[in-house]
Specification:
alpha+beta, eight-stranded mixed beta sheet, 8 strands, globular
Length: 176
């Protein structure tokens, strides 16, 4: 299959969270990565279906590396996949209510553009809580006993502002 079968451009109502897109971070001794959490509205059935198809294609493309020691291919349902249900996995967090979410990461910095495809270089202009579209790709992985499908981050497009998803207050609020 073609890499295009595992690539998805999300719908314009994707909300961005945990934006680590300017400087890579290292977790658990791994190579530093750029990463983001994508919140996909459950109402965006077109994007959800495209993601499911891309995950299925990544599973089929990666069948050889996913096979068990006895050369049997585990079912996709038995593997770890990146799309998760915010209502079930984060029931106490209102930000995740009504959303599917997935983590996307890359060793390379994503390009970040505005609605006219002009580069965004002001770090304050792209933040956790804004909305836009993401270019993501899926692939199979096998790290010892850990097998599944992972989501790679390609590029990001900010389309509109949203309420910032952080607990930081301004100096004016703190000292009112």
């Amino acid at each position: 299959m073609s890499k295009e079968n595992t690539k998805v451009i999300t719908g314009p109502d994707t909300r961005f969270s945990y934006c680590c897109v300017w400087d890579p971070r290292s977790y658990g001794g791994r190579k530093p990565r750029y990463s983001i959490v994508l919140l996909i509205p459950k109402s965006d059935k077109d994007t959800v279906e495209k993601i499911r198809e891309a995950i299925q294609n990544a599973y089929l493309d990666g069948a050889e590396i996913l096979k068990n020691e006895d050369s049997t291919l585990p079912t996709l349902a038995s593997l770890k996949t990146p799309m998760r249900d915010g209502d079930k996995e984060r029931p106490d967090d209102p930000v995740y209510a009504g959303y599917w979410f997935l983590n996307a990461s890359s060793l390379q910095a994503p390009e970040i553009v505005d609605e006219r495809r002009n580069a965004i270089t002001n770090r304050d202009a792209f933040y956790s809580g804004c909305y836009g579209r993401a270019s993501i790709s899926f692939r199979a992985y096998c790290n010892g006993d850990a097998k599944g499908i992972t989501c790679g981050l390609n590029n990001l497009q900010k389309l509109r502002d949203g309420e910032a998803l952080n607990s930081r207050t301004s100096a004016a609020e703190d000292f009112a």
